């Protein structure tokens, strides 16, 4: 199984500041035929199901604020919140859909400092 | 608007089975597949498997050998997930989630992240 390791486990950021979450994959998620990385990011608030933020590593889902962005470098993936808002307090997960079983990172909890 | 509405909470004894439903609306049911994902209390997310809304093709995670079965009822646009031989380790919130890519993509929609989620069904396994 592909292992996704997120860092840090938790993050405390001041309002308006940048938050950066990393996700390292145990193997490549890149498919040469379509030039895409099969990696998604989700936000989960307490008592709610996850919400899709980013897919193909860097494509923002419709309706997601543009302060959320995704990037990749080889098997390292990053979710950036450019200016943290109070409503961004949540747990964030990365997920790969390159090789079954689909797997998720362990989650990163983002709080306000 | 796309909605996935799941059945209510369940309490089961060890060794029993549970069947959870997920009624889809707001989109063409046969154009997309549905996955099931679970989350144990205070824990992360775990994928159980996928079923096509087009032809009932399934793919199950090998972590649940012979224990999980997914079916559809196209007349009611409902997907079902049955998990058998329950143990306390199966206590979790179970979510259905729609695949982002339609079945008309190269991979028949299988290689997809999840764009819409049900509200979750809490399954508690306790003697």
Layout: helices, strands, pairs:
The complex is a heterodimer of chains A (113) and B (127).
Chain A: E1 4-7, E2 10-13, E3 19-25, E4 30-31, E5 36-37, E6 39-44, E7 51-55, E8 59-60, E9 68-73, E10 76-81, E11 90-96, E12 103-104, E13 108-112
Parallel strand pairs in A: 2-13
Antiparallel strand pairs in A: 1-3, 3-10, 4-5, 6-7, 6-11, 7-8, 9-10, 11-12, 11-13
Chain B: E1 3-6, E2 10-12, E3 18-25, E4 33-39, E5 45-52, E6 58-60, E7 68-73, E8 78-83, E9 92-99, E10 114-117, E11 121-125
Parallel strand pairs in B: 2-11
Antiparallel strand pairs in B: 1-3, 3-8, 4-5, 4-9, 5-6, 7-8, 9-10, 9-11
β-strand number of chain B: 11
Chain oligomer state:
heterodimer
Uncertain stretches of chain B: none
Number of helices of chain A: 0
Largest sheet of chain B: 7 strands, mixed
Distance between the termini of chain B: 40 Å
Coarse structural class of chain A = mainly beta
Shape of chain B: globular
Strand content of chain A: over 45%
Output the radius of gyration of chain A. 13 Å
Measured by DSSP, the beta-strand proportion of chain B falls in over 45%
Roughly how much helix do the residues of chain B carry, as a percent range? Answer: under 10%
Order of helices and strands of chain B: EEEEEEEEEEE
**Topology as H/E string of chain A?**
EEEEEEEEEEEEE
Gyration radius over CA of chain B: 14 Å
Count of β-strands of chain A: 13
Distance between the termini of chain A: 36 Å
List unreliable stretches of 5+ residues of chain A. none
User: Using CB atoms under 8 Å apart, which protein chain pair has the greatest interface?
Assistant: A-B, 22 and 23 residues
């Amino acid at each position: 199984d592909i292992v996704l390791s997120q860092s840090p486990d938790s993050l405390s950021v001041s309002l308006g500041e940048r938050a950066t979450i990393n996700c390292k994959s145990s193997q490549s998620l890149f498919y040469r035929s379509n030039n895409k990385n099969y990696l998604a990011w989700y936000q989960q608030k307490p008592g709610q199901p996850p919400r899709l933020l980013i897919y193909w590593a860097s494509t923002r889902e419709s309706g997601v604020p543009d302060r959320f962005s995704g990037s990749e470098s080889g098997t390292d993936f990053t979710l950036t919140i450019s200016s943290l808002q109070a409503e961004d307090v949540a747990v964030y997960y990365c997920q790969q859909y390159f090789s079954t079983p689909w797997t998720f990172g362990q989650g990163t909890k983002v709080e306000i400092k | 608007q796309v909605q996935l509405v799941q059945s209510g909470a369940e309490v089961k004894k060890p060794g029993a089975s549970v069947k959870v439903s997920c009624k889809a609306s707001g989109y063409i049911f046969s154009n997309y597949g549905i996955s099931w994902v679970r989350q144990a209390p205070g824990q992360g997310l775990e994928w159980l498997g996928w079923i096509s809304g087009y032809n009932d093709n399934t793919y199950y995670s090998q972590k649940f050998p012979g224990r999980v079965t997914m079916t559809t009822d196209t007349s009611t646009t409902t997907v079902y997930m049955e998990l058998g031989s329950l143990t306390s380790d199966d206590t979790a919130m179970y979510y259905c989630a729609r695949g982002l890519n339609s079945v008309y993509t190269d991979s028949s929609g299988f290689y997809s992240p999840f764009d819409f989620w049900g509200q979750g069904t809490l399954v508690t396994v306790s003697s």
